[in-house]
Amino acid sequence: MKNKHLILIFSLLLALFAIVSCADSQPNEHETINVIFKSNDTKKGTVKGNPEQVLEKGQKTDWVIADAEDGFEFKGWSDGVTDIKRENEIFRSDTEITAIFELPSSELPLLSFTMESGNEVTSKTEYTPITLSISNTDKEYCFEEISGDLRGRGNATWKMAKKSYRLKLGKKMNLLGQGRGEAKDWILLANHCDQTLLRNYIAFYLANQLDGFEYASSASFVEVMINGDYKGVYLLCEQVEVQESRVNIQVDPSKLDTGYLIELDQYADDDAGATEGITFFRAGGQMYTVKSDASEEQINFIQDFISKTDKAIRGGSKAEIEALIDLDSCIDMYLLQEFMLNIDVGWSSFFMYKKPDGGKLFFGPVWDLDLAAGNDKRLFDGGHEGIYVADGGGLGYTQESQWFISLMKQHWFEEMVLARWDEVKHYFEEISSVAEKTANSMKIAIDRNFEKWNIFGSRINQEPDSVVFLSNYRQHSKHLYKWLDNRYTWLDNYFQNQ
Questions:
Q1: Bond into 365 cis (ω within 30)
Q2: What is the pLDDT of residue 16?
Q3: Nearest to residue 404, comparing CAs of 414, 395, 394?
Q4: CA-based Rg of the chain, rounded to a whole angstrom?
Q5: In this structure, what are the phi and psi dihedrals at residue 75, rounded to the nearest 5 degrees?
Q6: Which of 2, 219, 378, 465 has the fewest Cβ atoms nearer than 10 Å?
Q7: Is the distance from CB of 223 to CB of 109 less than 8 angstroms?
Q8: Beta strands in 336-404 (DSSP E)
Q9: DSSP label at 359?
Q10: Residue 112 — φ and ψ, nearest 5°?
Q11: How far, rounded to the nearest angstrom, does the alpha carbon of residue 371 sit from its chain's CA centroid?
């Protein structure tokens, strides 16, 4: 009897198991699953269409598309699918799939900044704390989360959409190994009104070839991101400052005849707090700023020195001029500025430094030539012919250099210029090849920059019509190469006939 009960119980359990198994094997037509398509980083790209779908089992998915932001590209989905668009797929269970967006492969180092909020620096006077990571370059120059501060920079360029920046690191470093030594202060030039991105680079390149300059900034092209937002191609260069590895002069706050780094700067009285005799001074009808802390007595001293130099240059005496200025750096500066046809040679961003203890005035470092080399309609309508730095071109602009105009009227100075040209002209002859080689080495990055900043066919600053007319980067770069070649040929013929 007992065995019969056990057999009955066992039979009932088997029947119950069979019923449950059968129920599980039958599809529940009302059961739903969730299929989610998402981005790995919404600053790099998003999923368009219907990214969060609730489906009946067996129901096909609606369409979705992986849409990359400017400067980024779609690499594929996390489940291995590579098509940018997906639709009509069937999933058996809840599924989450990620669209992967990244920067395309690039030839340039990537500087990635992170700050607490926003993706743009909003002040050129107040620093914003940041961390900086450097990647896509030689391992020894890659870093993660370097502390520092970032602010905007520039005068007219600060008002442009693509901003330039000044970077102050928390500790001295030689970024990308490009400088002569470690430093905290670096500059990222946007070059937004130069649609080749090359003019400042070739100016720095030429300055580094001409040994009349004791110091010229190094320059490396990089790409920049802030809080994941792609900013474009920038020129990383050195801040113009007094330092052993830059403008190497001794500055002693207790001495009057100490070292002075000064800038000819007609914007000197524009900044808030600008005070004549404290932040800037006037000499020879021009404004100058002292690029380091100086007492009122020191400002008066360097003002008197520049006034004396101005008087000597306008007087034309070789002995008096040579006693006050370094002629080698002066002549190399003239040749570079004349070759590049820089309209602002007598206006701003023109640096000089006086050495201490009776030292002379040296010219340099070279700075800010993005409007040069045919990129300014005010100067010969962007053409390659003409002399401007030596005589103002007969145009009457306030940006002309009275010093170079006065010097080039002196036969002894002109002879020195012509002799120096014959010594160094091969550097100018080859500069278009240097520019072309440089552009060819960063084609991917250039394309990405102008996807972000689609400015072809527009006037950003003072570009002549012949430049505004150009509709793509290839046309812009070829226009510059031809301009440089033609400028060299014209200027060489002009000098040979003097």
A1: yes
A2: 53
A3: 414
A4: 32
A5: -100, -20
A6: 2
A7: yes
A8: 350-354, 361-363
A9: P
A10: -110, 120
A11: 15
CA 420 – CA 494 distance, rounded (Å): 14
Q: Two tokens at 257?
A: 């005849």
Nearest-angstrom CA–CA distance, 336 and 374:
14
Cβ-Cβ contacts under 8 Å for 184 (sequence gap 6 or more): 148, 168, 169, 170, 171, 172, 173
Euclidean distance between CA atoms 336 and 389, whole angstroms: 10
What is the pLDDT averaged over residues 188-206?
98
Give, in order, the Cα–Cα distances in Å from 247 to each of 32, 187, 355, 364, 382.
71, 15, 10, 9, 33
Q: Which has the closest alpha carbon to 275: 257, 258, 299?
A: 299
Please give the Cα distance from 192 to 165 (Å, whole number).
12
> What is the model's pLDDT at position 391?
94
* Phi, psi angles (nearest 5°) of residue 381: 50, 35
Contact 452, 192 (CB under 8 A): no
- C-alpha 40/C-alpha 47 separation (Å) is 10
Of 106, 111, 171, which Cα lies nearest the Cα of 144? 111
Q: Tokens 């489940």 label which residue? A: 79
- pTM of the prediction? 0.83
Nearest to 461 by CA among 369, 349, 334, 339: 369
**Is the Cβ–Cβ distance between 99 and 39 less than 8 Å?**
yes
Q: Which helix (H) or strand (E) holds 309?
A: helix 296-315
Q: What are phi and psi of 401, to 5 degrees?
A: -95, 110
Q: For residue range 15-38, what is the model confidence (pLDDT) as tens digits?
A: 555 544 544 444 445 589 999 999
Length of the chain: 498
Amino acid identity for residue 151 in this structure: R
Report d(CA 305, CA 262) in Å as an integer.
12
- For residues 462-472, give the mean pLDDT: 96
The amino acid that residue 420 corresponds to is: R
Q: Read off the pLDDT of residues 350-378 as tens digits, 9 standing for 90 and up.
A: 999 999 999 999 999 999 999 999 999 99
Residue ranges with strand state E in 357-446: 361-363
